[in-house]
Prior knowledge:
Elements: H1 2-17, E1 20-21, H2 34-47, E2 52-53, E3 70-75, E4 78-86, H3 96-110, E5 117-123, H4 125-135, H5 137-141, H6 150-169, E6 173-177, H7 188-200, H8 204-208, E7 212-216, H9 226-232, E8 237-241, H10 256-261, E9 265-271, H11 279-293, E10 298-303, H12 312-329
Parallel strand pairs: 1-10, 2-5, 5-6, 6-7, 7-8, 8-9, 9-10
Antiparallel strand pairs: 3-4
Helix pairs in contact: 2-3, 4-6, 6-7, 7-9, 11-12
Amino acid sequence: MVxxxxxxFFISLVFFMSIETSVVGxxxxxxxxxxxxxxxxxNVQLNFxxxxxxDGEQRGxxxxxxxxxxGLEKTGSSLKIIGKVGPMIGEKDQFYKIVxxxxxxxxxxxxxxxxVKVKITFTGPMTLGTICALTDKQSAQNxxxxxxxxxxxxxxxxxxxxxxxxxxxxxxLVQIDEPLLSTGSINLVEAKEVLEKFFKKVxxxxxRDEKISLHVCGSIKAVPGLFDVLLGLPVLVLSLGxxxxxxxxxxxxxxxxxxxxxxxxxxxxxxxxxxxxxQKITKERYFEIEKRVGKENIKxxxxxxxxxxxxxxxxxQILENMRVVSNLII
Length: 330
């Protein structure tokens, strides 16, 4: 019995040590060339001890990055549908996010920090498809029925999948972002079908090793049935927010039993991405999350969402608070 007790204690320590800090993806745009901006983003994350870093989306927005997909065309800062959406034409390694991932890896190599993990964020098929369709509904309706979005969503999914698989082949971690799911504007039956098919095409070893995650910001509780859909998807890491006014409602739906029964790990948005919070409040929020789901079921600690709307000074303060609190609790 004594041996069994020590064994359980050792296993729990292994689980606890596996919690990593990360960011959701975007940063405010830094001055200078693209290479200079990405280097600044990398250095900021390293300076604050982030375990899993990103390129900070310095090249564009969560939508404009995907103008290389067939059937899309730039219009202002967004994209519109001008034909059947499909995979990009040409080498997948020329996709902007993969190009910028390689830039990050080169920067890390130059700093002798090859051990730092890098994540590529992909806007998911529902969010990307909906935004592109709404940018120019008339153009989109020439190619898709907007009364039933399945065909459009499946096309976006099939267009994104080769790029996601290539990112994984290169050693990147991948995060699929579906922020519109929490707005109630996406049909959950359609979302379930599309995301199930998408994740089932990802190698089982990638799923098992938790190299891919799904991020949904906003209130999951506010959309009836959404949490059940997320729990039923064949992806193990769900990244949710708990800090904002809407996101705080997510505390009500998480529990240790729910996560363990559905074999899920949590990416916990335990700190605001837009406001500088008192460290005591942030620490208390984390312990409330831990109390509800168990420390062993937490995979990542990160802000609620991206930093695109925050100033550089504010991001630095948020990351400093995140560093201090994370060091106290991990």
